[in-house]
Write a structure and sequence with these properties.
It contains 15 helices and eleven strands. With about 450 residues, the chain is an alpha/beta fold. Strands 1-3-2-4-6-5-10-11-9-7-8 form an eleven-stranded mixed sheet, sandwiched between helices. The longest helix has 25 residues, at about 340-365.
Length: about 450
């Protein structure tokens, strides 16, 4: 744990140099593909100086879509396989300033498109729980690295659940702050109005610490402007459960575990109401229409002319065809389709209107409730390869997480329990969504639930 590491270094019971060496050894001998690049230059050059700062050289992993000067940032794509970052992302720089050692890049779905990390150009990551199971995605490598002790914490990005979903499947904590809470400058965009940098940690306290370090205004990211923090303490512990989460997609064992957790919360003084949010039945369609339209624009710069992979003799179509994987090309096709002039009024505009309506509904609900609670995923981790040919089944993995991105609100996944399948014991998570800009309140509530486990 990050906070424990800092305490132990400061009281002299832990040697940071030895700990860093042991961590690097774990990464080099691991067979779960949590990392795709190690930052050898940064580690060797900056280790001594970082140890003197408040975080004492704490080994932290960062997703492979975050810039660190001079180090490869490939987004796990052939398109950027050898691309070296010319500058450092703001979120990473803030950690460096406090003494973090950003030891390497964590594996991810190519350009963050996927829910399993199977769409990485390099290799799929493996869940440490179960046999040959996915860790979730797209920040799957970050979740695996934290779960197995290959770093004390890791950064991920969350566009539709890409931090919370792998956190749930790997038995760690995944936190997505309010949209704009942490700067995205220096982070490759998937869908600019959805993306948010967040954390994967072992404790809520660690998530709080990292948020405190990274949050704040950045002149290079206008979504952080005038982003005031609202700090409130809830005494009522009043939470809502949307009836729309109980669909055929929800695994009966996950539902049973979820209802057990709700009974536990009721016994601890939580007031729980079951409510209707009809728009939740349509969040999958809303998310994939809007997200695909935005990614089509964001990936337009990757044409092989200015940087990235280039087909010999240069051919735009062949360059992009060879450099992008199947999932990326599938979403590019969808994005181009929904923004065509003849389809704009049928798909894109109604989706924008529905998104605003959902945002308004959440805003009203949080005037009454401290949090909205759901399972994080509808099922435990699937076997590698089980859903790669069925996009609908894969997209349903984000069923409960996309609403927070559509509304721009903070959300966190905590370990909820385990499900036995044969000889395997598989973790699943519980998700809390909170009011916009009330991240600290949500984290305080999450800490209460964490203590009940």
């Amino acid at each position: 744990m990050l906070t424990a590491y800092i305490k132990n270094v400061e009281n002299g019971t832990l040697n940071p140099q030895n700990f860093i060496d042991e961590t690097l050894q774990k990464i080099q001998t691991a067979k779960d593909n949590a990392f795709v690049h190690l930052h050898h230059q940064h580690i060797s050059r900056d280790r001594e100086e970082q140890i003197k700062k408040p975080l004492h050289g704490a080994p932290i992993g960062i997703k492979d879509n975050m810039m660190l000067t001079g180090e490869i940032t490939s987004c796990c794509s052939k398109m950027l396989e050898t691309y070296k970052a010319p500058y450092t992302a703001t979120c990473c720089q803030k950690l460096l300033d406090k003494g973090a050692l950003l030891i390497g890049k964590n594996n991810m779905d190519e350009f963050a498109m996927g829910s399993s990390t199977e769409h990485s150009y390099f290799w799929p990551s493996k869940n440490p729980h179960g046999i040959d199971r996915i860790p979730g995605g797209s920040s799957g490598g970050s979740a695996v690295a934290v779960a197995t002790g290959q770093c004390l914490a890791a950064l991920g990005t969350d566009t539709g659940g890409s931090i919370r979903q792998p956190a749930a499947l790997c038995w760690v904590i995944g936190f997505k702050p309010t949209y704009g809470k942490i700067s995205r400058y220096g982070v490759q965009s998937l869908s600019s109005s959805f993306d948010q940098v967040g954390t994967l940690t072992k404790t809520v306290a660690d998530a709080k610490l990292l948020l405190e370090i990274m949050a704040g205004e950045d002149e290079n990211d206008l979504t952080t402007k005038e982003h005031e923090t609202t700090v409130t303490t809830s005494k009522t512990k009043k939470v809502a459960i949307p009836n729309q989460i109980f669909t055929e997609a929800l695994d009966p064992k996950v539902e049973a575990l979820f209802r057990q957790k709700l009974d536990q919360l009721t016994g601890k003084g939580f007031q729980i109401d079951f409510i209707d949010i009809p728009l939740l039945l349509h969040v999958g369609a809303l998310y994939y229409i809007l997200m695909s339209a935005e990614l089509t624009s964001n990936l337009g710069r990757l044409d092989g002319m200015r940087f990235g992979f280039q087909k010999e003799g240069y051919d735009y179509a062949q360059t992009r065809s060879e450099a992008f994987g199947k999932e990326v090309k599938k979403r590019l096709m969808l994005g181009n389709y929904v923004v065509l002039h003849e389809n704009y009024k049928t798909y894109y505009k109604p989706a924008l209107q529905a998104r605003q309506e959902l945002t308004n509904q959440f805003s009203q609900l949080f005037k009454t409730y401290d949090a909205i609670i759901t399972p994080t995923t509808p099922a435990p981790a699937s076997k590698i390869g089980a859903k790669t040919t069925d996009s609908l089944k894969m997209y349903l993995e984000d069923l409960y997480t996309t609403p927070a991105n559509l509304a721009g609100i903070p959300a966190i996944s905590l370990p909820m329990g385990t499900i036995t399948q044969g000889e395997e014991v598989l973790p699943v998570g519980i998700q809390l969504m909170g009011a916009k800009r009330e991240d600290e309140k949500l984290l305080n509530l999450a800490e209460m639930i964490e203590e009940l486990s």
